[in-house]
């Protein structure tokens, strides 16, 4: 798709006039030069221009803006820094994009309760650093954590490199404030570790991808900072060896916090960008990190090292210090973007399988690539079974794009056959909407639709995402 | 003004496509951080460029203003894992803006014609103006002017700029440096030194120091006394035709085949100079020579480290030094460790890192003239970080940054902190070796 989306119809004039009263003059954008840059998020093959963009600077403005749009039945698409990988924050036709990246304050750090209250536009890295400064730890660490905002992380229920041991964003959200479709503001959850009053509505909003309401405040759970951390880089001749080493580590009942892998294409692209000394001729790499109390970390690393050797690791290197460990993790975080060095369009999948099926899945992806004459690079979070097979293609080659789509369907089908999921951490958005009924089954899919109809009867929150209209 | 090849619609589309809008550039972009608006981010600007290449949007006044709101600091290129060639896109976009004439006004046209094409293409005229400025400053005219508050008579933008004008040196490079200078020890390498424009007028002592350190490292140094501007100002301001013409003149003056290296000591110039191969790729007569030139072009710090420069045995006068990285030296040329290595090799120097050392100081070519408000905010932010180190000397290797920081310090009443080029500190240490008993 080399030509962009057609210009969207202009927004209701009365709404514009009202918004102009509510926000500063540089916070309401309607000119083409302002709107074109909002026609996408981090997803490659989708594009749509909003009718207008509004960037409120505080909670009161945000609530007033959302209420104004709801009153006039104008669809609302919320967005942070637009790094999503499922087109979840892509504008819908005629929509008002409400950009939350100016709501970027940490409201409270409460060490007595191990919590932090933040606005949705705070960049995740800022949260991580603020926790660290208080000798605490916020474990979720999406690859894009230096850019992505916490509101987006909660809305998409983002994962990250430490998912294996620490889970996903959901596991660290204790409370949420949301604006509902009738304009009311609702608080869900609280600071109590144990709280079983009523339905778990907070969880309903986590991962709802902006389709049920607008998040205005988030209460996060923090944990003590691990006392020690050690990082290993293990090199393998093939992906299968690496996959079997991972199965071996899990079978040995060791849970490192990070167990990442990169295939050869990814290793080369990452090294080309980051220059951290990755072995560019290796068939596969595992980046492994253990954290916790020092004695336990040493014991875990010893098992990991022995297991890697038993599964034919050709080289095992330990990060010399924290700085090197950070360099390696940062290099790994660039994997998706670095792959664009090979072909201009990168389409990232997010399939996840039970860990026992990893080797089979990896083999299958290779078969699909050969069968359809496509380049697919694979990297991801081996430890939690979350794979990112990435199609390296060119959106201008229509025939190839058709083959990409066929291959994608085959990969999804296989994933579901193996008991996996179509998305481990990026969300459904638009990109994976067509596959959702297949995964959920009829009863669950209808329940999803019913919930959406109940909470958003007019269909104004992020229309068309997750569920087909 | 005809731009020739390189406009957005004509360029290789894959350069535009390379941006997969992952957003890795966002936290490194000073203008995005300032406004949090997508159009003020690298990927937002590329989206606009692509819309133009796709015929979805005309080159408009707003597009032109956006391209000039970009600092061109290239921090995004360091952050970009996909390897987007932002410098090429940026220059093509500004060239397109100039060709379309969307920002034209009689005043802007007159300034561009007189400054870019009139002054900065004529080295002798530039020196004559420099000489007149020096007389004005040295004769006390300037201070009298300021004491009598006559600057109130100037139009607003000139009134603001007047105190920012660089202090002109008494002697220019050709008066300080002979065309060929040979080292005391046997010659091991032959190099050519580029003297620059602002560097030649305001910082000719830095050029002299550059020659001195090269001599101290057994290089035979060739410095043509009259040199054309390298064209960096023109390329960065949308005048690629003049930039190409100046590059050809540079290649006529200095034959890369005659030297082991061609040395630049100004971050901004060097960043442009090392891409002559790209600039002249379609020029049948000059393309091959330009490739040879780009292969030989070295930043002075980079070259000294490459030839394993000799550490001085005597100290320089500076004790606590912090280093501000010129955008085009660190992001444009990827020279970041070498200036630090040089500073640390000087006995007695304590290098204190400042926060955000690679964040733009707001000078950005002529950005401080075209976008004074954003420039001033960046200057303030930079000064805060520099002051927090408590260092007595700020080292930096680009005339624009040098002036921006020095002006900021003096405007804030700081009379003790000095600004120096790292090479000047090194040259002083070498010189001190001889003055010791």
Automatic annotation (TrEMBL), chain A:
Q: Check the record and name the InterPro entries matching this protein.
A: FAD-bd_oxidored_4_C (IPR004113), FAD-bd_PCMH (IPR016166), FAD-bd_PCMH-like_sf (IPR036318), FAD-bd_PCMH_sub2 (IPR016169), FAD-linked_Oxase-like_C (IPR016164), FAD-linked_OxidoTrans_Type4 (IPR051914), Oxid_FAD_bind_N (IPR006094), Vanillyl_alc_oxidase_C-sub2 (IPR016171)
Pfam families, A to Z: FAD-oxidase_C, FAD_binding_4
- Enumerate the spans annotated as FAD-binding PCMH-type domain: 46-225
The prosthetic group or cofactor this protein requires is:
FAD
Transmembrane stretches, start-end: none
Q: Which UniProt keywords apply?
A: FAD, Flavoprotein, Oxidoreductase
Name this polypeptide is given: FAD-linked oxidase C-terminal domain-containing protein
From TrEMBL, chain B:
The free-text function statement in the UniProt record for this protein reads: Component of a complex that catalyzes the oxidation of glycolate to glyoxylate.
Q: Which InterPro entries match?
A: 4Fe4S_Fe-S-bd, 4Fe4S_Fe_S_CS, Cys_rich_dom, Glc_ox_4Fe-4S, Helical_ferredxn
User: Can you quote the record's cofactor note?
Assistant: Binds 2 [4Fe-4S] clusters.
Q: What is the lineage of its organism?
A: Bacteria, Pseudomonadati, Verrucomicrobiota, Opitutia, Opitutales
Q: Which Pfam families match?
A: CCG, Fer4_8
Which keywords does this chain's UniProt record carry? 4Fe-4S, Electron transport, Iron, Iron-sulfur, Metal-binding, Repeat, Transport
Against PROSITE patterns, the record matches this protein to: 4FE4S_FER_1 (PS00198), 4FE4S_FER_2 (PS51379)
Name the record gives this protein: Glycolate oxidase iron-sulfur subunit
Q: What class of enzyme is it?
A: oxidoreductase
List, separated by semicolons, the cofactors it needs.
[4Fe-4S] cluster
Q: What is its EC number?
A: 1.1.99.14
Q: Which reaction does it catalyse?
A: (R)-lactate + A = pyruvate + AH2; glycolate + A = glyoxylate + AH2
Q: Where are the transmembrane segments?
A: none
Q: Does the keyword rRNA processing apply?
A: no
- Occurrences of domain 4Fe-4S ferredoxin-type (ranges): 7-40
Recorded hits in Gene3D superfamilies, A to Z, give:
Alpha-helical ferredoxin (1.10.1060.10)
